[in-house]
Amino acid sequence: MTEMTSKLDELFKLQQIDNQILQNMRRIRQIDKVEHPVQKKHRELNAKLEAFDKEQIPFKAKAKELQDQIAAYKDKKNNVDMKLDDSQTDPKELQFIFKEREQYTKLIKTAEDEIVKLMLELGNVDLKKRGFVEQLNDIEEEFKKVTAERAADKERFAVEVEKLREERKAFKNFSDKTLLSHYQELQKTHDGMAIATIEDTDDKDIKVCTGCNVEVSLRTLQALERADGLVYCQRCGRILYRQG
Predict the structure, then answer these.
(1) How would DSSP label each residue in 18-76?
(2) Angle between the 91-168 and 37-85 helix axes, to the nearest 10 degrees?
């Protein structure tokens, strides 16, 4: 085994680790990016319920405002009633006091009627909400199960990444820093695959590069056999490596 072959053996092992790290990172990103159908439905149902809650806010605010008005009108009406019950009230004022009492009675009735209408509106919204709440309840168990499973998968992939990163530390002492730097540059431009292996085809005389699936020339294969330097795929530019 030549020195270059030994170095490529090490770099190929490094690439396998790097690719496993990349694969697991992609799996984690996929979990974060793509919702499970049940999770999507759960989110959409919650959004619907939140929209209904927002729809009810002005009705509830108006009802509270009317209740405060009714309380104020009742206080004023009570004051009027006290004047009517007071024997010292000037009889000449009674006519005006009765009119004032009637006015507050009407205001209270009008406000109470408005509250009834608002309660009906709120009830209609509650009826709409009920159907969505039932749908949400129907999928709640499945949602929890799916969410837990995806969280467990994400954790498993993250643990695997950390394990692989620990394994990768062993390559910090790789002797040929120039070759290592070259490998890393090729990784960036070749989707993480700097080194490609040679693969047999149905035709025993034809070998292909696993990086681009293009036939490797006889001259290139002969250069690989000599193993006295780096050999590149003429099509994709990856470093070619013969396993075994």
Answers:
(1) HHHHHHHHHHHHHHHHS--HHHHHHHHHHHHHHHHHHHHHHHHHHHHHHHHHHHHHHHH
(2) 160
Of 41, 73, 213, 69, nearest in space to 138 by CA: 41
Contact 206, 214 (CB under 8 A): no
Longest dimension (CA), the chain: 127
122 and 61 in one domain?
A: yes
Q: Are 239 and 8 in contact (CB under 8 A)?
A: yes
% helix, strand, coil for the chain, step of 5: 75, 5, 20
The predicted-structure confidence for 163-197, as pLDDT tens digits, reads as follows 999 999 999 889 899 999 999 999 999 999 999 99
237 and 138 in a single domain? The answer is no
Same domain, yes or no: 127 and 235? no
- d(CA 213, CA 127) in angstroms, rounded, equals 62
Contacts of 221 (CB under 8 A, 6+ apart): 198, 207
pLDDT (0 to 100) of residue 143: 98
13 and 126, same domain (yes or no): no
